[in-house]
Amino acid sequence: MKLNYRGTQYDYDPPTIEMMEGPEGGLYRGCSWHTRYPRHMAAPQAVETLKYRGIAYGNGANAHTSAPKRESATPKSGSGVFTSHTSKEMWAEVAKIHEANLCRNLERRLQAAQQRGDQQLIEMLQKEWEQLTCAIS
């Protein structure tokens, strides 16, 4: 199809999509109509070995085999990457650290509310403190 836009001529070939006809959808003015669906073809994805912050990973079928395996369950400090080989103990440790951070943040917010003298906020934060079961420090 030849098109012209602001004096520039170009050819446009719309992509052809194979359609498949679904079951009969109904009748309209005495004629039956069918739903049509595009036929999906699986396009092979290029296999790449990529690296993010020093950790190799990939997007292909053999991506897990190309990545180096870790010797220990704990990631290197500062890497911030957890692999599928991470043990349950590691996740328990992460949960414990997360809870400690929540409690520390809550304690900081409680001290700020006490400095302002906001009784309503202090009561809310104390209820939250009880729900988190933070140790009194």
What does the model show?
With 137 residues, this protein is an alpha+beta fold. Helix content is 34%, strand content 25%. The strands form three sheets. Strands 1-2 form a two-stranded antiparallel sheet. β5 (49-52) and β6 (55-58) form a beta hairpin. The protein is elongated and about 75 Å long. 0% of the residues are buried. Mean pLDDT is 75; it is low at 63-75.
- Biggest sheet: strands, sense, closure? 2 strands, antiparallel
> What's the rounded overall pLDDT mean?
75
Number of strands: 6
Beta-strand level of the residues, as a percent range?
Answer: 15-25%
Alpha-beta classification? alpha+beta
* Integer-rounded radius of gyration: 30 Å
pLDDT under 50 segments (min length 5)?
63-75
The helix content, as a percent range, equals 25-40%
Short characterization:
By secondary structure, the chain is of the alpha+beta class. The chain has 3 helices and 6 strands, in the order E-E-E-E-E-E-H-H-H. About 9% of the residues have low confidence.
Task: Map the helices and strands.
Elements: E1 2-5, E2 8-11, E3 19-28, E4 31-38, E5 49-52, E6 55-58, H1 63-66, H2 88-116, H3 119-132
Antiparallel strand pairs: 1-2, 3-4, 5-6
Main features:
3 helices; two-stranded antiparallel ribbon; elongated; alpha+beta
